[in-house]
């Protein structure tokens, strides 16, 4: 009987501690912040849908790889973020992945900044992109130079270029390009 009493006492204590932890979680974002996130993310509605096309990228000096690309762009979490799921396959061998990435596009009301978090196999970044009416850019610094990407949707297609600079952005060399059309 004492053993059962002690077991129940321990369980009651664990449940009380669990309930305390639940009530100490951060509050849900106020409606105003959610409304602000939705409005900011809606500026990127031009990207939504399934896109297909082709492109090329440099995989090293003199190593150009051509690929067929599919990008699926969706709003998630009640319109407060966008996911981008990209799959690029070698033009000559579709079983071989050339350019595979996943990204999350968000807006942070506290800082009034967009955040772009691309994930590649073995790599992840968190950058502040610059958003325009039908385009956006993002980039990052690396030990060997700077990289930037420009995505332009002005003519209804998805045209993206990637560039690299070894001299702190004084000169840029194109190392990636793709053009996609909306399939859905």
Main sheet: which strands, in order across? 6-5-4-3-2-1-11-10-9-8-7
| Average pLDDT figure | 86
Which oligomerization state do the chains in this entry correspond to?
Answer: single chain
Query: How many strand segments?
Result: 11
The radius of gyration is 23 Å
CATH topology (level 3) name: Lipocalin
Total of DSSP H or I helical runs spanning 4+ residues: 2
CATH superfamily: Calycin beta-barrel core domain
Biggest beta sheet attributes: 11 strands, antiparallel
* Residues in β-strands, percent: over 45%
Q: Uncertain spans, ≥5 residues at pLDDT below 50?
A: 1-25
Shape: globular
Please give the CATH class: Mainly Beta
Number of separate structural domains: 1
Estimated structural class? alpha+beta
Order of helices and strands: HHEEEEEEEEEEE
Describe this structure in words.
The structure is a single chain. The chain is α+β, with helices and mostly antiparallel strands. The protein has helices spanning 2-23, 31-42; strands at residues 49-58, 64-76, 81-90, 97-108, 113-120, 123-124, 130-131, 135-142, 145-152, 158-165, 173-182. It has an 11-stranded antiparallel beta sheet.
């Amino acid at each position: 009987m004492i053993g059962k009493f002690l077991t129940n006492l321990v369980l009651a204590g664990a449940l009380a501690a669990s309930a305390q932890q639940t009530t100490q979680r951060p509050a849900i974002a106020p409606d105003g912040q959610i409304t602000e996130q939705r409005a900011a993310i809606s500026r990127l509605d031009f990207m939504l849908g399934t896109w297909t096309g082709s492109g090329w990228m440099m995989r090293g000096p003199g190593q150009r790889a051509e690929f067929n690309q599919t990008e699926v762009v969706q709003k998630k979490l009640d319109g407060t973020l966008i996911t981008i799921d990209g799959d690029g396959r070698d033009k000559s061998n579709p079983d071989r992945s050339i350019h595979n990435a996943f990204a999350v596009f968000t807006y942070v009301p506290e800082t009034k900044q967009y955040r772009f978090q691309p994930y590649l196999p073995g790599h992840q970044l968190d950058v502040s992109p610059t958003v325009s009416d039908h385009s956006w850019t993002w980039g990052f610094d690396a030990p060997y130079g700077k990289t930037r990407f420009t995505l332009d949707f002005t003519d209804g297609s998805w045209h993206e270029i990637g560039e690299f600079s070894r001299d702190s952005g004084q000169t840029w060399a194109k190392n990636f390009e793709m053009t996609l059309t909306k399939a859905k």
